[in-house]
Amino acid sequence: MDYDRSPQRLARATGLLFLALAVCGMFATTALDGFVVAGDAVATAGNVRNARSLFVVVLVAWTALVATDTAVSVALYLLLRRVDGPLALLAMAFRLVFSALLAAAVTRLFDAYGLLTDPGRTARGTTATEAEARALEAIASFGTDFLFGLVVFGIHLLLVGVLLYSSAYVPRVLAVLVVAGGVGYVVDSLLGLLVAGHGGVVSTALLVPAALGELGLMAWLLVKGVTTGRHHREKREEPA
Q1: Are 102 and 149 within 8 A, CB to CB?
Q2: What is the pTM assigned to this prediction?
Q3: How does residue 122 score in pLDDT terms, banded at 50, 70 and 90?
């Protein structure tokens, strides 16, 4: 397969996967937040019961997110393995761990839905109020699990940024933003797990580089692909 053409197809396929992630992720997180009333199990349960079909769509979106994220981990490895095989493999491993953690977290949302819509899922003698409280706890646990997963994801993003910087596939400013985004995810997620009330301006400042880096990388891969010029031909021609 021609070296200069294959990475372009792979880059654009990866860009499309990033686009799917962005669309699913934006919908899934925003729609889920719309159901949850913090600290109010009764109101949250009412929201889910009154819009069951939409909540099912949210569950499907999170499931699609897990599958797409797994595909992204493989696509990035295939794209970056020529740069540094072991480091690309390590980056893929971290992303696959994140995908597994996300999948485990999403099962909590399925549990919450079952508790609120299927009486057979609750133990005999469990009241509706108790089931609603357990459902809200499951949704809260999803949030905690997701934050922990983002720590792992941040490490993955940092490694991808390093690989992109070394590859010259994309402008180095994008690679630097991806690295900064990875650091931002790790720090912001740890603060979210460990510091009560974390958020606001601090969280936004930490995640801005991630948003710029991920969206910029997606746009570059979709529009430009990757640069496969003299630098990469020289690397290919080096004797074993």
Answers
A1: yes
A2: 0.88
A3: low
